[in-house]
Design brief:
By secondary structure, the protein is mainly alpha-helical. 77% of the residues lie in helices and 0% in strands.
Length: 104
């Protein structure tokens, strides 16, 4: 595996000929050509994977943060409803449509 990686790097750099690389690693020039093609084909994936993982991590962190906030707000809402019932003896009246907090 190490030989393949080093061979790919040598082939991409272009500092040595395919024949020189083949002799150095004791393989056929066709193998070096395949290494180079494989490396160039997969080069873009290296950067895409790093970005995708970062985006997914950011997305997961944001989702966790929002779920935590929803949980906190739900607990606060239930607490306030309970206190309202204790103080006034009945459930709070729903807001009229004109005062609704929902977006339209």
């Amino acid at each position: 595996m190490y030989q393949t990686a080093v061979g790919q790097g040598e082939a991409i750099k272009g500092e040595k000929t395919l024949q020189q690389i083949a002799q150095e690693f004791e393989v056929h020039t066709t193998q070096v050509t395949q290494w180079k093609k494989q490396a160039l084909d997969n080069l873009g994936d290296l950067f895409e994977r790093a970005n995708k993982k970062k985006e997914e991590g950011d997305s997961d962190a944001e989702t966790d943060k929002l779920y935590k906030q929803i949980g906190q707000l739900s607990v606060e809402n239930e607490f306030l409803k309970k206190k309202y019932r204790q103080w006034y003896g009945h459930e709070p009246k729903p807001l009229p449509d004109s005062c609704s907090l929902e977006q339209r």
